[in-house]
Write a structure and sequence with these properties.
The chain has 196 residues and is mainly β. The protein has no helices and 13 strands.
């Protein structure tokens, strides 16, 4: 993880709630033909007009977390990629498939976009939104999405629920750009819980 340095990776699958290892479980969705926006590993994604799209902060019900894709390029070669390159054309008669983590019991680590101080530590068990202020990395395929520390609330429609600090040595309350552990909260298939 990248705590202490402003270098986000989006939502990184960590374990399942109850401390079991994450098994890599995903659901697949079709990416619209030549979809014009990059989708990076760790990005929240949603459905717009019945098609997969990047999540827009402040809107309800993402479907889950983008975790790579596969498609057949225009030369007929199957490509496996950590990210969807914007406006990619695929081989005629084929579709691009996105891997999406949808399980609400998956625990993710995500970097905060600002320092988390001792007073904000009281936000454990609150709900929160994300920020896309940092772009994803086309070299690594990793997301630049962060947890938006200005959005702590009990609102059940927020997409993430905070369950604690990522137990990395040194990643503690007051650390700049700390990593928190979160679960998906309000999604297209899972009603959100009110924070406490």
């Amino acid at each position: 993880m990248t705590y202490g340095v402003n270098a986000p990776l989006g939502l990184v699958a960590n374990s399942t709630y109850g401390s079991s290892p994450w098994t890599g479980s995903i659901w697949t969705y079709q990416i619209p033909t030549t979809y014009p926006t990059n989708l990076f590993e760790g990005d929240l994604v949603t459905m717009a007009n019945g098609q997969l799209a990047i999540y827009v902060p402040g809107t309800p019900n993402p479907v889950g977390v983008f975790w790579g894709c596969r498609y057949t390029d225009t030369n007929g070669i199957v490509q496996f990629s950590k990210y969807w390159p914007a406006s990619t054309a695929v081989f005629s008669g084929t579709v691009a498939i996105a891997n999406i983590i949808t399980d609400p019991n998956t625990v993710f680590s995500i970097q905060c976009n600002a320092a988390v101080t001792p007073t904000t530590a009281l936000t454990i068990n609150k709900n929160v939104d994300v920020s896309f202020a940092t772009n994803g990395n086309t070299r690594t395929g990793k997301s630049g999405m962060t947890l938006d520390t200005s959005t702590w609330n009990v609102t059940p429609t927020l997409p993430l629920h905070i369950i604690g600090f990522d137990p990395i040595p040194g990643n503690v309350s007051g650390t700049p750009y700390a990593n928190l552990l979160v679960k998906l909260n309000a999604t297209s298939t899972n009603a959100g819980a009110t924070g406490v």
